[in-house]
Design goal:
single chain, about 130 residues, eight-stranded mixed β-sheet, 8 strands, globular
């Protein structure tokens, strides 16, 4: 019985190691193509201004980022080119889950954005299975 109690903590630790990538940190939810995805970060270097997939984060509305690409064709593995968006009138703010909707709101003048190359980062996204 003592041996069982000694092995349980080791088994729990091993399961955590197998579930999460080494050094990964959860960042929350990112939306792409209308779906929600889990995110995690790993210690991969991304030089400022070298992000390849656009992602939008918001200054005056609390929601996850909106990515241009979901995992799959067109994606570059979560090498994000960061844009910071602001709702012109915060009363109009609402949840956005598709990058095309962000672009339409930029065209209509409801959103503004600024490219933030120093904020580029790598963070893979996974389905919320």
């Amino acid at each position: 019985m003592k041996r069982l109690f000694a092995v349980l903590p080791l088994a729990a630790l091993l399961s955590l190691v197998l579930v999460a990538p080494a050094g990964a940190r959860e960042f929350g939810t990112v939306y792409a193509e209308g779906d929600a995805y889990r995110t995690f970060g790993n210690p991969a270097r991304v030089d400022p201004g070298t992000g390849t997939d656009r992602i939008v984060v918001f200054t005056n509305f609390d929601q996850g980022g909106v990515a241009e690409f979901a995992p799959g064709p067109g994606s570059h593995g979560g090498r994000w080119a960061v844009h910071v968006a602001t709702w012109v009138d915060p009363v109009d703010a609402h949840l956005l889950t598709d990058f095309d909707d962000v672009l339409a709101l930029l065209d209509s003048g409801d959103l503004t954005w600024v490219r933030m190359p120093d904020a580029d980062f790598r963070c893979p996204i996974l389905p919320n299975a």
